[in-house]
Design a protein that fits this description.
28% helix; four-stranded mixed sheet; 2 helices; globular; alpha+beta; 83 residues
């Protein structure tokens, strides 16, 4: 058995028809369902958060996508390099 869990139920999730703690017998089916839920959450929710699927043991956790750490190299981001 494989469980799909929502890490933190935001207001958009609570207002949606999606469910938390879904149990599915097939790992492949659980992954497909978790990815489908994540796509719905990213496409139809308010857009304040971006969600991702994380596999933990035989379960799938849908949580907030972590942002890449910001680098303070002083570069303007325009492709700086040595000439």
């Amino acid at each position: 058995m494989h469980k799909i869990m929502i890490e933190r139920e935001c207001g958009c999730f609570k207002r949606s028809e999606l469910q938390n703690d879904i149990v599915i017998s097939s790992k492949d089916d659980a992954l497909v369902k978790a990815l489908s839920m994540t796509n719905i959450m990213n496409d139809e929710f308010c857009g304040k958060h971006e969600f991702q699927v994380i596999e933990k043991q035989n379960n799938f956790l849908i949580g907030l996508k972590e942002e890449a750490p910001k680098q303070s190299s002083g570069c303007c981001g325009g492709g700086c390099g040595t000439h």
